[in-house]
Amino acid sequence: MSKFYVSPFTGEHLIKKGNWYISRNGKEKFPIINSIPRFCDQKNYSLSFGFQWNKFDKTQLDSNNKINFTRNRFYQSTEWDPEIISKENVLEVGSGAGRFTEVFLKSTNGILHSVDYSNAVEANFQNNLEFKDRLELSQASIYEMPFSDNTFDKIFCFGVLQHTPSFEKSIESLIKKAKIGAEIVVDFYPIKGWYTKINSKYILRPFTKKLNHKLLFKLISLNINWMINLFDFLCLINLKPLTRFIPITNLSQFPKNLTLSQRKTWAIMDTFDMFSPEFDNPMRIKKVESLFVKYGCKVTFAGFIKYNQNAYGAVVRAIKS
Q: Which helix or strand (DSSP H or E) is residue 93 part of?
C-alpha cells in the first residue's frame, strides 16, 4: 500500500526505514511503535482519551453490540455513498477506539487514513486488524497531521472538535488537508441556549479533570447504580430536566436495545468522557458554520441530525471552495 506521510512540521516527504519514518536529509525521525507511526509526543492533553478507549476498546463497536448505531450516525451525518468513497482519498480525524473506522472499512472497499492524538490508536489498530491493508493509522495532533495540504477528497471528524484547545484552529487544520471541491463533515457539542452550561458536567469539570484517571473511573463506577436509578426515576415521573444535575451522562440518547449490563458499561464510559477531558468547548451551530465560511468553504448543511431513536448530533457539512 502506498504511503504518503510528510513531516507535520516541515512538509518534507518521509521515507520508511525499519521502524522509523525519516526525512530525506535525515534530520527528522518519527518512530513506528506497535505498527503505528507516531508524529506527536506520547504525553499530551488527550491522555484521558487514551485511558478511556483502551479500557472501553470494544464498547461502542457495532460489531460488538450487534446493532447499527454507529453506522447510522456515520451515514446520516455524512450522506456519503459507500461506492463513491471507496474510490476517494478519505481522512478520519480523531478515531478513538475505531468505531467509525470499523464502519468505513466494513461498508466500503476504500482505503482510510486515520489519525488520533491519543494512544487510543492502539485499540483502533487491534479492533480493525482484519482491515490493516486498507487502514493507514497514525498518532498525530489535529494541528500537526502528517499529510500534505490539499490531499483528501473527504474528511470526517466526529466527537473531537470540542475537546481541542482551539475550535477555530481545528477547523482551519481540517480545511487545509482537503482538496478544492472536497467535502468536510464534522459533529460537535452544541450550545443550545443559556441553560447549556447549567449542568453538573460543567459545574464539576474544573475539579474532575484534574483527578487521576484511575481514581475518577473508580468514583464513577462506585456511584453509577444509584445515578442510573435516579435518572430513570426522574424520567418516569416527567422530571427529566432535573437529570442535568445528576453527575451522569444523558442515558436517554443510548441505543434502546442495549442489555442492562451494556447500558451500565456505556453509562460509566460516557460519564468518564464527561468529566475527564482537558478541554470541553461546546459551540453554537451558527458559529461553526461561520468558521467554515471564514476559511473558504461553502456550507451545505448546518443543523441537527437524528441518527437513531432519541440520539441526535449537531452536524456541519462544507465544501472547500
A: strand 90-93
Please say whether the beta carbons of 54 and 120 come within 8 A.
yes
Cα dihedral 105, 108, 114, 120, rounded to 10, equals: -20
Contact (Cβ atoms closer than 8 angstroms) between residue 77 and residue 315: yes
With a CB cutoff of 8 Å and minimum separation 6, the contacts of 15 are 21, 22, 23, 24
Residue 159 to residue 187: CA distance in whole angstroms: 6
Please state, in angstroms and rounded to a whole number, the distance separating the CA atoms of residues 206 and 269: 19
Cell of 22: 525519516
The rounded distance, in Å, linking the Cα atoms of 119 and 233 is 38
Torsion of CA 245, 247, 248, 250, to 10 degrees: 30
Contact 157, 49 (CB under 8 A): no
Coil vs helix vs strand at 156: strand
pLDDT in tens, the chain (321 residues): 346 899 999 999 999 999 999 999 999 999 999 999 999 998 999 999 999 999 999 999 999 998 899 999 999 999 999 999 999 999 999 999 999 999 999 999 999 999 999 999 999 999 999 999 999 999 999 999 999 999 999 999 999 999 999 999 999 999 999 999 999 999 999 999 989 999 999 999 999 999 999 999 999 999 999 999 999 999 999 999 999 999 999 999 999 889 999 999 999 999 999 999 999 999 999 999 999 999 999 999 999 999 877 788 999 999 999
Give the largest CA-CA distance in the chain. 68
Which candidate, 176, 103, 95, 99, places its Cα nearest to that of 136? 95
List the one residue out of 256, 282, 280 whose CA is nearest residue 65. Answer: 256
Which long-range contacts (C-beta less than 8 Å, at least 24 apart) are formed by 309-312? 309/255, 309/256, 310/252, 310/253, 310/256, 311/69, 311/73, 311/253, 311/254, 311/255, 312/253
